[in-house]
Amino acid sequence: MEGKQEIRRTEDENHEVEKSGERKQCDHEHEHEKEQKEQHPLPLMALNHVSRLCRSVKDSMEFYTNVLGFVVIERPHAFDSFDGAWLFNYGIGIHLVQSQDEQRLPSDKQGLGPMDNHISFQCEDMEAMEQKLKDFGVKCMTRTVEDKDNNTSIDQLFFNDPDGFMVEICNCENLKLVPASALGKIRLPSCRARKQS
């Protein structure tokens, strides 16, 4: 009888050791997965395009090509079921889509407010850009924001495209990017990464 109990105790101990080993293996695999996720951020590279609804694709194309220097690129035939155009420059695309519903477009085509939705383009010569806007008769609002903590300032130009969507031109590159929390998680384009270091 004692022999059977001894064998059973040994089997139970072996079973517990196996279970403990499985738990350790599971914990180890979980830690490994966690490390991999931290080492391999999302496979995102950059902003690809901004899509804009238009009252007139033709008018918007003229604005973005003449005023902002975008280039019309070929749009795949798969998108021929609706009127639109694809533009590209500065590493970003703008996709124009003919609106079928006036209610979806901004009602105020003249209002400018820096605290409203807008897209922003980095600029290396703010004076030249302001002059270009004046040459095209584009009404704009200018402002300078002082960053006393970093002893620098940011110049901004705000204006609307033909449909009332706001656009900003700035020299925000003057500001150094400092992560508020997720230290080391910011992925910069290589040219921006060199400037930050």
Polypeptide structure, described:
This protein has 197 residues and is an alpha/beta fold. It has a domain of 71 residues: 2,3-Dihydroxybiphenyl 1,2-Dioxygenase, domain 1. Helix content is 34%, strand content 25%. It contains four helices and eight strands, in the order H-E-H-E-E-E-E-H-E-E-E-H. The strands form two sheets. It has a four-stranded mixed beta sheet, covered by helices on one side. The protein has a four-stranded mixed beta sheet with strand order 5-8-7-6, with helices on one face. A hairpin with a 4-residue loop joins strand 6 and strand 7. The protein is extended, with a radius of gyration of 29 Å. The termini are far apart. 10% of the residues are buried.
Major pleated sheet? 4 strands, mixed
CATH topology of the domain at 107-177: 2,3-Dihydroxybiphenyl 1,2-Dioxygenase, domain 1
CATH architecture assignment of the domain at 107-177: Roll
Strand order of the largest sheet: 1-4-3-2
CATH superfamily placement of the domain at 107-177: 2,3-Dihydroxybiphenyl 1,2-Dioxygenase, domain 1
The helix count comes to 4
Categorize the overall geometry. extended
Distance between the termini: 76 Å
The residue ranges in which pLDDT falls below 50 over 5 or more consecutive positions are none
| Helical residues, percent | 25-40%
* Secondary structure category: alpha/beta
**What's the rounded overall pLDDT mean?**
82
Region (Disordered): 1-39
InterPro entries: Glyas_Bleomycin-R_OHBP_Dase (IPR029068), Glyas_Fos-R_dOase_dom (IPR004360), VOC_core (IPR037523)
Protein name: VOC domain-containing protein
Organism: Carnegiea gigantea
